[in-house]
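Support request, please re-run this one:
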Amino acid sequence: MDSAATVPSSATAAATVLQEQQQQLQQQTSRISLLVKEVESSTAGANSANLVLQLDSLNRLTEFSEQLRARVQEHNQHIESLCSLHYEGFVESIGQLLQVKSDASQLQRRVADVSSRVNEVCARLNSLCVDLMQSGQTLHNLDSARESLQLCLPVLDAYSRLRAQMNRRQPYHALKTLERLEHSLLPLLPPYAFTEAIRRELPRIREQIREASENELKDYLVGVRGDRSRLVGAIALRLVAQQAGLAFSMLGSSSEPLDHGEGSNIDDLLDFSPVYRCLNIHTVLGEKARFQQYYRNQRSYQCTSMLQMSPLGSSRVNYAEFFAQFVGFFVVEDNLHHTMPDMVTREFLNELWQNALEILTRLVRARLSDKLENTDALLDFKKYIQLLLIAMRSYGYRVALVSDLIKEMQAKYFRVLQDNYRPMFQHIFADDNYTAMLLQNAEDYKAQVLDLYPFSSAEFDSLPYPKRTSFSQMVPLVYSTCAQFVDECLCFHDGASADAGGTSNAELEDSLSKAINDLLAYTVRDCFKERLRELHLPELIQMIVNVEALEEVCDRLEAYTMQRLDSGGVKLHGKAVFKDCQAECESFAYEKMKEQVNKMISLAEYDWDYDPIEAGHTSSGNHGQQQAQSAQNLQQQLPPPSAWVSDLMAYLHSTFTAFTNLPPKVAQTACLISCKHVHEELLGLVMDPQVRSIGPAVLLQLSSDIACCKAFATNSPVPGLEPETLCMAFEELSQLLRLVVSNDWQVFLRECQTGPRSRYDRVTVSKAVQLLEKVREFDRRKGSFLANFRSKQRKETEVVLKQLRTLVPGGTAH
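Re-run finished. Output below.
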């Protein structure tokens, strides 16, 4: 089995080997054919070495030689066939070739001749080419030099221009030239010696440019701080004045040339190019933030120094210059804010405005408190403050503090006006004759009354001339002076609407009402009080009439004020003021009446110890009978009133009869007060502690005097005053004297103990006790008829006194 299996395997291997050998033989044969073809090609000579190596590797050189001979034989046969085919043509070609040979020889000679000549020409051409190449190199060098010079010339020109600009102090243009030189021109050049020198010079030039720009900025700041800023402010104030309807002439003489000179436009006066250039320079230098801070610090310092060093004088020119410079400062900054908002920011302007406004407020308040006491100066000052308010508000600043300043100036103006009007009212009160005005004709009526005071009364107008007013010349003068005060107060608000920086209608009404009320309540009233102390009774009576007329003056003054304001919100309190004045005047009149009464009462001379019985004593035998008869007559008959009482009543009667213009209530009150005062003085005489005894005769005389006073009261000269009311003023002393004289003690005691009191209701127990004790003391000291003839009555008097003392609170029956 094994041997049988091995045999096929060997056969298979042999077949495989045989097959591989056949394949190799075929491959070698193919390669030999390829080598033959390669020999036939035109490149076989070049590759002969390689061909030999390949033949050697195949080891079949014989087979290659055979194939190569066979191939040569094939080619020979092919050539023979071709030659036989083209023989005639070949012979012709040979003949032609021989002919061409002679021509070629001739041509060769001619070509040699041409070649020699060409060689000569080429030699010369080579020489020219060498020259041309040298000339081209030279030209190239020249072009390179020209190009280099063209690159250097702008650098040199820029550097020259830079130096010239530095000499002409044009730092902004110099910086632009420097930047172009440094970043655009110098990088184009090789590092020449002069370029390196320029590069080393540039930092120093840059520093000079920075210093030059700062110097230019300083010059600008100095220029804009002075006249330029003042001119800008003057133009701004002029425009504001025109828009507000105010007269531009008030801006002072310094601004008048602006109306017809050059530079009357703000834009023509504002040249911010130094600031722009300096900002650009510092921006390029990388110092923009430092420059902005430097500019703000400088302007803040200038603003403060401007306010602290500029005098706020008292003339219109001083005001114009001060406020023009103040407004011009902020107008300049506002224009810069619109063109350079990142440098002059709104926050910086607001802070600058607040600081300046605080300083300005202190200056204005100091000016108001120390020096401004003239209304014209106050008005001028106020107009500039008003223009400042309008101008700064138009630029977007907060002006609440300026409005407060105007209100403070208004209060100051009103106070100064009141002080100015005080002498006027003093003259009116001092120069008045306190007599009703006598008007002879209509011309007098118009000149003395209607031209000063819109007085109207149908009853008065119906009276024929000559006629008298109830008031004196003082009343029309007071009205006309108050109306003039209103006009001058309104001068403060002329041309000042709420939109133009003034106060609103309601604020104007309130402030004007307060000013007029203060004038009436303080100035007029103080002058009235000063004069009141110097007046006599007739003048006081006329003053009362005048004050009553002045209450009507307040109504007409209020109507006049509302007419001037064209509104109905004015409320004057003058009536209350003049009511108080009238009360004071009436009080003074009453005191004057009391003084006159006191002068006449001081003439009273009562002999308190007078005893008519003792004065009439005789030595006749009928002495006792005569004394009794005298006592009886004394009790039954009153003596005539004292002369001073008669004179006093006649004076009072004539006084109250003459005062027909006196208001009825005042006349009634004066009469009643006078009667009460007379009664009080008489009662005071009776109850005077220094009067220790009173005789019956004096009691009867007092009773007669009181009866005379009651007779005056019964025939009262004052219309509307009830006689019973006036008589009651004397009732207490009348009842007391009647009680003592009539010895009606039992009735009095009964009324005091059980009531009701009707007959002696005005008599107090204490006064009855005092008077009865003085009567008893008289009896003890004089031993009067009561002791001699009426001892029983004397004992009754003691009993009455004891009973009366028990009725007095805290009294004892001793």
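Strands lie at 438-439, 467-468. Confidence is low (pLDDT under 50) at residues 1-7, 250-263, 617-635, 784-789.
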